[in-house]
Each structure stands twice: as structure tokens, then as C-alpha cells.
């Protein structure tokens, strides 16, 4: 009788040890219950807030217009070389950013068409985006020589100021780390370029 009880206890101990070993193996070699998978982690890294989406949707046409303005001035003759160098620099910086912004919108499951409008970021929607009107763009297109150079600089200063406001709002309100990093870079780069443009204007 005593021998049977001893065997029974040994069986229970062995079973408990085996169960513990299986549980430990599942935790160390498998995926713990409710642990996020690699797929869900990747999705989280691409997550965005409404401010991130609005930033991308607003900045794409803004950058496109800056590139158009720069193409316009680069096609003219009699333009100060410093202005031509600046226009080339602006194109080189903003064209890759347009491509990246479009890629983010695709990753976030949306497109370039802004559905949130200028109210997508607090503080915008009051005409402070710095975009040129059709009349402004036509004036730059028709201008020539030194007049065109001055007009380009004056228009681009206003344009940059609008971009800086949008970018600063992304820094303050956005959640996507990469988008916030781009916005921070835009603030720094375009603030510096405004200083350069004002310096050139002072000598024309």
C-alpha cells in the first residue's frame, strides 16, 4: 500500500515538472501569450497621427510649388549666381522629401488628397501656409533679369515662412518619429535659407 502511494507521488511530481518545463520552453523559445508579433510591431512603427497625415498632404504641394518656382528662375538669363545656387539647393532638398512624403502616405493607407484641409493642424487655415497665388506665379514667370531675381527671393521667403510654420506644428503635434525628424530638418534648413535670401536681397 505504502509502495503504491510512493509511486503515485512520484508520478505527480514528474508530471508537474514536465508541465513546468513545457511552459518554460514556450516562454523562452516561442511567443509569450499576448506578446506583439513582428508584424504588429512593424505596423506600430508606421503608425501616424492625423497631424502626420495632414503634414504630408500639405507639404507635398508646398514643396512642389517651391520646385516650380526654382525651375522658373533657373530657366531665366541674367540672374545673380547666388540666386541660381540657392534655387538649385532648394530643388535638391525638396524633391527627395516629396518622394518620401508620398511613400509615407502610401504606408499610412491614404493618398495625397487632403481630406482634413488646413484645419488638420491647429493654427493653419489662416492663409499662413505661404503658398503663392496663380497671380504670384504668373508675375514670377513674366519677370526677367534682376527684377525676377528679387521677386523670387521675396516670394520664397514668404513661402519658406509658411513651410516652417507647418513643419513646427508637425514637431509639436505629430507622432510619427520619421515625419517629426523631417519637419525638424525643414525648420532648421529653411530658417537658414531665409537668412541667406535676406542677405542677398540686401546687396541687390
From TrEMBL:
The keyword Ribonucleoprotein does not apply. Residues 52-201 form the DUF305 domain. The keyword Hydrolase does not apply. It comes from the Bacteria. InterPro entries: DUF305_CopM-like (IPR005183), Ferritin-like (IPR012347). Residues 1-26 form the signal peptide. Keywords: Signal. Coiled coil: none annotated. Pfam families: DUF305 (PF03713). This is DUF305 domain-containing protein. It comes from Cryobacterium shii.
Amino acid at each position: 500500500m505504502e509502495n503504491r502511494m510512493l509511486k503515485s507521488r512520484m508520478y505527480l511530481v514528474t508530471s508537474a515538472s514536465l508541465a513546468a518545463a513545457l511552459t518554460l520552453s514556450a516562454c523562452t523559445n516561442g511567443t509569450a501569450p499576448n506578446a506583439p508579433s513582428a508584424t504588429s510591431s512593424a505596423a506600430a512603427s508606421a503608425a501616424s497621427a492625423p497631424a502626420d497625415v495632414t503634414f504630408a498632404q500639405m507639404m507635398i504641394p508646398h514643396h512642389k510649388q517651391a520646385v516650380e518656382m526654382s525651375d522658373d528662375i533657373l530657366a531665366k538669363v541674367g540672374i545673380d549666381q547666388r540666386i541660381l545656387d540657392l534655387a538649385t539647393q532648394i530643388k535638391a532638398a525638396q524633391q527627395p522629401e516629396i518622394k518620401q512624403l508620398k511613400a509615407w502616405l502610401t504606408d499610412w493607407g491614404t493618398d495625397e488628397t487632403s481630406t482634413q484641409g488646413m484645419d488638420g493642424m491647429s493654427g493653419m487655415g489662416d492663409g499662413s501656409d505661404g503658398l503663392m497665388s496663380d497671380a504670384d506665379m504668373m508675375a514670377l514667370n513674366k519677370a526677367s533679369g534682376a527684377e525676377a531675381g528679387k521677386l523670387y527671393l521675396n516670394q520664397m521667403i514668404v513661402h519658406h515662412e509658411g513651410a516652417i510654420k507647418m513643419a513646427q506644428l508637425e514637431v509639436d503635434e505629430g507622432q510619427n518619429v520619421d515625419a517629426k525628424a523631417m519637419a525638424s530638418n525643414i525648420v532648421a534648413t529653411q530658417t537658414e535659407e531665409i537668412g541667406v535670401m535676406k542677405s542677398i536681397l540686401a546687396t541687390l
